[in-house]
Amino acid sequence: MNVFPTRPRFIRLPLLAGCGLVLLAGTSTCFGADWSGNATVTSDYVWRGTTQSSGDPALQAGLKVAADSGFYASVWGSNVSFGPEVGADTEFDFTAGWSGSLGQDWALDANVLHYRYPGSEVDLDWTELNGTITYRDNYWLAVGYSPEALGSDDSGVYTLVGARFPINERFRLEAAVGHYALNAVYDESYWHGQLSAIWSPRQAVELRVTAHATDANAKSIFGDSYAGSRVEAAATVSF
């Protein structure tokens, strides 16, 4: 949110305290739940085609716990920058949902995602319902709906279509096109696209370069400093 939001994951669970020693011991499973996490450093925090860090670098980290049934909860955080009039410098995203296979080739992920910006001078917090259907791990359609899009009192619908193109075991390309219907909020909607080259030099490490572009409507909504064309480089370690 340019006064607009961002991304996914933070949570307080009774399991967390009980599993602390197990996590420190290096195990990823506790009481039937699998734990995973990641940490990222990126040259620019870009969300739905728009920068959330005013073009500056960002440090990000997430933690997820998933049950054998497919239900999961996660928390994710990043630094953000929307200008001095907004005052937010941190974002936490809390997610609860279910993911699982729908037969041999299809998979579904459905979740509730809450965006929170502690310390903000204005109320940016909002919640979104999301669903993603994936085909053979390489093609996906995602839809998000919120009755309070970008912290407003109006609704918004986000749609994304993406594809993954493996080149070999360590290198792949990814492309996606998204549309954000914000007519109830800004009397406009916008399109954006992105193309990524991703290399995994070793297991659990990814290096990514992504080119982003938005249409003129995004610039009209968020301003030239937040929308338009930009290139982002990032490194992620998963555990």
Question: What's the β-strand tally?
Answer: 15
CATH topology title: Porin
Fraction in beta strands = over 45%
Whole-number mean pLDDT: 90
Count of helix runs? 3
CATH H-level superfamily:
monomeric porin ompg
Level of helix content?
Answer: under 10%
> How would you describe the oligomerization state of the chains in this entry?
single chain
SSE topology string: HEEEEEEEEEEEEHEEHE
How is the largest sheet built, in terms of strand order? 2-5-6-7-8-9-10-11-12-13-14-15
Q: What is the end-to-end distance?
A: 29 Å
Shape: globular
Features:
mainly beta, Porin, twelve-stranded antiparallel β-barrel, two-stranded antiparallel sheet, 3 helices, 9% helix, globular, disordered N terminus
